[in-house]
Amino acid sequence: MLQTDGPTIHEVVRERYGVAARDASSGAHPSCGGSCCSSSADSCRSSDGITTNLYGAAETSTLPDAAVRASLGCGNPTALIDLRPGDRVLDLGSGGGIDVLLSARRVGPTGHAYGVDMTPDMLALARRNAAEAGVANVTFLEGTIEALPFPDAAIDVVISNCVVNLSPDKPRVLREAFRVLAPGGRVAISDVVAEAPLPFPVRKSLALWAGCIAGALTREEYTRFLSAAGFVDIEIESTRVHDLAGFDDPDLRSWLARQDPDRQASLKTAVFSAFVRARKPA
Fold it and tell me: Is 263 a domain residue?
């Protein structure tokens, strides 16, 4: 087992998604994997219950192929929220830029869509994708989602796609989202959530942390952290349930094999993709 401290998590996540960005830039799909944050080649997508069928053809047909290849999420946050012309949208952990580009088109020329990412290769890819798509009302900034490079009350809508779970300090992420939102601002997050606290072998696996599983909050934790940050009207809607046995991690597989049948059965519904919505009071 590896130590899942904050700096180590950031380092592992940055390296993993740097590789994914370079794969997408070269025309390859990021390596197949059993986690929400691993985009899969077409031959793998049929067995990937987390990343499949998140965007409609009408959305992806107007985007650069590299933006679609680099889509590493577990949902479509732009479908969660009613984006309006003129809105200022911020994507936490924007990756190759797919959700920023979709948001920019919906808010129109009077609005703006921003993306923050800590991986230089992803930022470079996102900027190329924006240029290729001809979308001008976007800005991609380097930074962490625990310390957003924005002043207070500068954003109308915060979105995120399977990234909050990657942070080693989720309460701080949600406090930062609250800080940068204008009064009445909204959050729309697609994320992986746990039904109950995950077992130790899962939580201490850096591979599963970078794969969007080990860092998953429980429904109760997510609600509590959002409320503590100041959010109201909190909703967490399950969209897809995932079996831990489907994730390719040797330590996890070894641990699962030692569990009794009832315990193994309970882990078939241990984690799920979810839509998370909340609002900053006006």
Answer: no
